[in-house]
C-alpha cells in the first residue's frame, strides 16, 4: 500500500489531472487514416543480432568476486516478497 503525505497527494492529484487532460486532448485527434506503426519513420525496423551462446573461459575468475555463491551461481538477496 502506498502512503502519501497530504502535500504529496495534492501534487500527484494535479499531475494526474494534467495527464488526463492531455489524454483527453489526444482523443480528439482524427487518426482514421493513420496506419499503425512501431516506428515514427516508415521502413525503419529494429536491427537485432542473432543470439549465440559461447563458453566464457574465466567464469571462475568472475565468480570469485561474488559476495555469495549457490550451486555455482551468484546468490542475491530476495527483493520481492509474496503475501
What does this structure look like?
The mean pLDDT is 87. This protein has helices spanning 6-26, 59-63, and strands at residues 69-70, 73-74. 31% of the residues lie in helices and 5% in strands. A two-stranded antiparallel ribbon has the order 1-2. The chain starts with 5 loop residues before the first helix and ends in a 9-residue tail after the last strand. Strand 1 and strand 2 form a beta hairpin. It is built from two helices and two strands. The radius of gyration is 25 Å and the shape is flat. The chain has 83 residues and is mainly alpha-helical.
Short description:
The chain is mainly alpha-helical and 83 residues long. 31% of the residues lie in helices and 5% in strands.
Secondary structure topology:
Blueprint: H1 6-26, H2 59-63, E1 69-70, E2 73-74
Antiparallel strand pairs: 1-2
Using the alpha-carbon principal axes, give the shape.
flat
- Cα gyration radius (Å): 25 Å
User: Main sheet?
Assistant: 2 strands, antiparallel
Query: What is the mean pLDDT?
Result: 87
* Count of extended strands: 2
Please mark out the parts with pLDDT under 50 across 5 or more consecutive residues, or reply none. none
Terminal-residue CA separation: 12 Å
The helix-strand sequence is HHEE
Secondary structure class reads mainly alpha
Number of helical stretches of at least 4 residues: 2
Helix content: 25-40%
Which percent band covers the strand fraction? under 5%
Which strands sit side by side, in order, in the main sheet?
1-2
